[in-house]
Design goal:
By secondary structure, this protein is mostly helical. It has one domain. Helices cover 84% and strands 0% of the residues. The chain contains four helices and no strands.
C-alpha cells in the first residue's frame, strides 16, 4: 500500500502542482481510472486478479487523497513548525509565568 509522504518537500511540491492545469488533468484521469478499477473489481471472479485489482484501487485512492489534500497538509506542517519554533516556545513559557 502506498504510504503518505514523510518529507514535507513532497507535500510542498504537490501543493504547487495543484496550480498547474496539466496536473488537474492527470488527477482527473487517475480518478476515472480508479472508478474503472472499482467497477472491474466488482465483477472479477478470479481471486488473485481481484486481490491485484484491490491493491491497484487502494494505491490509486491513496495517491488521489495525497494529491487532493496536499495544500491542507502543507498548512498543517507549517502550523506545527511555527508552534515548535524557539520564538513560539519562548512566548508560551512567558505566558505561563505572567
Amino acid at each position: 500500500m502506498l504510504s503518505e509522504p514523510t518529507d514535507p518537500s513532497v507535500w510542498q511540491a504537490l501543493a504547487h502542482l495543484e496550480h498547474v492545469n496539466d496536473f488537474k488533468t492527470v488527477v482527473d484521469w487517475l480518478a476515472v481510472e480508479l472508478e474503472k478499477q472499482r467497477c472491474h473489481n466488482d465483477i472479477e471472479v478470479i481471486e488473485v486478479s481481484l486481490r491485484m485489482g484491490q491493491g491497484c484501487a487502494q494505491t490509486l485512492d491513496k495517491l488521489l487523497y495525497i494529491a487532493r489534500t496536499a495544500r491542507e497538509t502543507v498548512g498543517q506542517i507549517k502550523e506545527r513548525e511555527s508552534a515548535n519554533s524557539p520564538m513560539a516556545r519562548t512566548a508560551h513559557s512567558f505566558a505561563r509565568t505572567v
